[in-house]
Description:
By secondary structure, the protein is an alpha+beta fold. It has three domains: 2-68, no CATH class; 85-314, Hypothetical protein af1432 (Orthogonal Bundle), CATH 1.10.3210; 322-380. Helix content is 45%, strand content 12%. The chain has 14 helices and eleven strands. A five-stranded antiparallel β-sheet has the order 10-9-8-7-11. Strands 1-5-3-4 form a four-stranded antiparallel β-sheet. A hairpin with a 5-residue loop joins strand 9 and strand 10. Helix 6 packs across helix 10, helix 6 packs across helix 11 and helix 10 (232-240) crosses helix 11. The radius of gyration is 22 Å and the shape is globular.
Amino acid sequence: xxxxxxxxxxxxxxxxxxVFLDNGFVITAPEMPFTEELxxxxxxxxxxxILCEGEPHKEYTWSNTRGDIPEDSPLKEMAxxxxxxxxxxxxxxxxxxxxxxxxxxxxATVSDELDFKIVTEQIRSMIDYIKEDRKYLMRIxxxxxxxxxxxxxxxxxxxxxxxxxxxxxxxKLPSHKLIDLGxxxxxxxAGMLKLPSQLxxxxxxxxxxxxxxxxxxxxxxxxxxxxxxxxxxxxxxxxEHHERENGTGYPRHLYGDKISLxxxxxxxxxxxxxxxxxxxxxxxxxxxxxxxxxxxxEGKQYDDTIVRALVLSVxxxxxxxxxxxxxxxxxxxxxxxxxxxxxxxxxVFGEFTPDGKIKTTPTEPNKLSIVRPxxxxxxxx
Length: 381
């Protein structure tokens, strides 16, 4: 792709192909002008460059866009969101937060440093952001492909923390407990930092000895956090996040009420995150399939109250999911319907309001409804 400096693009230019913020996040489609307002927004969030396979032109003409992606591509439609600034802001916040967590983990591993106050401040910022712009944060998570060089442990921890805070907010945890839950979730895999990285980054099946080593990470995490004087409730969450309601978890095979609340929430959040995300050793499932697996709750592994809180917070068709609608259009789930998690609010690609914005509408029984999630190939074509 061609790289353009934002400040050097003439205001009002029409690019001959889709413009990306990075390799996966669309900024404008060819028929949309690159406005001064958009340039200022990008500069405000410290994005200095954009990517495009085409070139800028003074006017839009169809002949300039023959190499464009198809008209009904959801990636193209994303560029027309009236809330583009909030999506850019959400991506910036997420990437900055992830970078800070990667540095946090690096210091804990290399320098044996882990400061409770620093982690707490990070979590406060995440809680504030979720309270203000949760739906935008959830949407961009589906559009960000983790870079191959990124440590999946940090990505998993951050995404699990977002979900845990959303659940904690739904069940109305007091603010101090919500902060502790966030800290516990961010550090629930801390014990992994004490193990060789090839064990959890491997894309091959682990042998018996390696599997046994992985099973030690809850105890290692508990000991590590205790050594840094983290509160006992947070240390217990690291120890118990693999415990299950029916006693089949580890390391202590606890049942039901013997498992701490933070651990129950983190178990649901990180299990859903793992089901719906790509891993070195497995392909991702779509959010709907992952949610159905949790709802089945085979063997009653998870606390039903916590599973229900997740569903009501992000819907059965989770925010950010691309879907096929009953009118034959493609769309994206953009918010929850608190009255019915089966019928979330969607943006309908190819349908517009009188002022030119993408149509946003609730789905309803016997009216506009979701048929199924889109596959990755359907999203990209």
